[in-house]
Amino acid sequence: MKKEGFVEALSRIFEKNKVISHQQSIDLQKSFLSRSDLAFEDFLLEEGLIEKEDILKALSDYYAVPSMDPIGYFFDHYLVVKFPKGFLLRNLIIPIEVIDDAILMVLASDPADEDLLPLLGAYVSYDIEFRVGIASEIVETIEEFYDASLTDLELDDNLIPEVEHELEDEARRDIEELPEDE
């Protein structure tokens, strides 16, 4: 969970962006501190206090990197599976794309986390460029990606016996249709 300083800073950004008033900012912080079981962004979304677009803009301002909404984004399967699911979930990151065969763009809930670069370096040797996103949406995206991948594998496994039988039947028909030697 992020510190109180983060909550205060993000609240100030909301004020600066004219999303909320100063009094609403104070009330918001008090309300959040009484329900600190959630991440601040999740609290804001769950309570319907701030729109997702405004949260993403504030996160972008706070971390000084572009923001991104991962929901509905089509991730490169081969890129994502370079990283174990648990690694992505623990670090709240997901690789987005490789640019010019040199830069890996990564969506992170906390792009300022100094541990991320060495951790990512254990898996890839690209330069890293961060985007910021909402932690719960990163988790949701990772879960959906890996669940879909498993479903695809299960479908492929289920199709293989069917295809094998079709090929066997086709081969049997081809043999039966061969002219007999007279």
Describe the structure.
The chain has 182 residues and is mostly helical. Among the domains are: 4-63, no CATH class; 77-138, GMP Synthetase, Chain A, domain 3, CATH 3.30.300. The chain is 58% helix and 10% strand. It has helices at residues 4-16, 22-34, 40-46, 52-63, 77-80, 85-91, 116-121, 135-177, and strands at residues 93-99, 103-108, 127-132. Strands 1-2-3 form a 3-stranded mixed β-sheet. Strand 2, helix 7 (116-121) and strand 3 form a beta-alpha-beta unit. Helix 1 (4-16) packs antiparallel against helix 2 (22-34) and helix 1 crosses helix 4. The longest helix has 43 residues, at 135-177. It starts with a helix and ends in a 5-residue tail after the last helix. 21% of the residues are buried. Residues 153-167 and 169-175 have low confidence and may be disordered.
